[in-house]
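<instruction>
Derive structure tokens from the sequence
<entry> Chain with its tokenised backbone below:
===
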Amino acid sequence: MTNSQLWFRGVRPSKFRHVYGLPTRKECCYTDISVVRSGNDGNFCAINPTFLAIVADTTFVVIPINQTGRIDFQCCKVIGHTGQILDLKWNPFDDNMIASASDDCTIKLWKIPEGGLTSNLSECSTELVGHKRKVLHIEWHPTAANVLISAGFDHLICVWDVGNSDKTLLNVIHCHVDMIYSLAINRDGSLIATTSKDKKLRVIEPRSGIVVSEGICHMGTKCSKAVFLDNDRILTTGFSRHSDRQYAVWNQHDLKKPLVQEVIDSSSGVVTPYFDYDTKMIYLAGKGDGNIRYYELVDEAPYVYYLNQFLSGQPQKALGFMPKRGVNVAQCEVFRFYKLHAAGNICEPISMIVPRKSTLFQSDLYPDTLADIPAIGAKEWFQGRNVQPMLRSMKTGESILDANANQKTRNSESKYATIHHTSSKHNVLNNHHGNHNGNSNNHSHSNGTNGTALNGSNYTNGNSVTSLTNGGKNNKENEIDNRKFDNNTKKFAFLSQPTIPDYRPQAVTNIIEKSQKTSTNQSTKFHQLQAIFGQHQTANHKDIANLQNNLLSNSRNSSRNSSLENINLLNSENELRKAFNKQAEEIKSLRKSLNNSEKRVRELEAEVKRLQLQQKH
């Protein structure tokens, strides 16, 4: 094995290698909240960029996202369910609509007023009744408007169209024979994945109810979870036969054997996966754990690379996460959790941050993400149409359609401005040629030779000079702006490159750097001496060459005494002082001449401006 292979063994370049979790100060947390004490592993916390919703047994509280600190125990709540609430999900296309699934076999949709609740909300906007037993999981469709998918304890999966007045039940899927542990939907909403108590992972087409593929995912009897990844892959978390916690990556078209399967640890809490599609990072958080592990996904084996973990002394009861459109791009925040503490009524935001020194927008960290605009309607989707979700820019906040429309408008305006500028320029030139021809004709009657000379000359009037001068200035300013933009682009591209650590032994590195510095300093000293005495001692070239050779040999031999003796051969201290004084006087004279030249330049610029004003008048 070579030294280079030894130095860089185990180092994989990645811009997410140094991601860290940043907890929030206590005054910026949400405290004194009546958090549910149930032993279920449901989704008890739901967040969007406007509101935070937290389950409190048969009710849930809705808090404006900016209202941090102590929450009054008598705060306004959403009351309407007769059983415990098991799942909460905000509508991805409406920040004021939230769906709740309950133990009372119903799903209810609530419309939260702007600014938050001012009184208890007891009347829901829609009630969905179709499950025979408690409803465990709900998911909104990521591309179609008003499509909701639910899974219940009755082993049924229901697909709803909540936009119609009659709240149509589009489909009921009967393919499970045991309790459904988790429900996930892929990015375009064409497939759903479920895990159940019979240890099987199923991929289902929700419109027809056809099971596309199924297989045994984890051999343990405890709860397992699933989430869709990119490139037709699924990640599951569960338990082995020996109760070790595991994760596995699957090809969604072939569930007979996992692509990779690894043991996490031997704890007992159920692990829930959270996938960030934009950064290709997966976060694994266990119920009752105080840490959050995060990994990076790649397209080839081993598919999953461990990055790091966020450690905390407080165990978590449940976690919610902010949609990507709500993170803080100025702090390079790529993900944000909202952690419900198992002990104490506290909800703590935890930011996952990529360390960058620049506060400018980092385009490599923030590709276009999901927008809050549906791509199709419920009827189109149920008829078999699949489309990718609408995207929005993380830099401007505009959706892609709005950005394209604005770009077309700007292009048309710039095209009109270009045409207008070109036509005005042609008019100026035509006027100039007209004046020039008139003057030449008048002069030709009096003197033929003068008229010929005027016709052949490049005569311009005051208006044409002014317009061409302004055009030249604008072109120069545009060129300067383009050069600045190119330099900034190159600078931030260089800063965004991943750093590769140096694993060479410290002693070897210090020796190499020390020898390089010694040789550089001695060569620099020789050039300074040569510049000082080059003007006065033109006849001593042989001595100077001998001195250079001696200095270079001394840098290799590191002989301090011999180098000092060679330097003493040059001249006495008085001659060095005289040379220094002479150089100081030359520098003063150069500064004086530079100041005079700058003053002259300012005077000429003022004169040019005055002449231009006279030409305009």
In short: Residues 1-9, 418-473, 535-540 have pLDDT under 50 and may be disordered. The longest strand covers residues 94-102. The two ends are 81 Å apart (CA to CA). The CA atoms of residues 82 and 459 lie 93 Å apart.
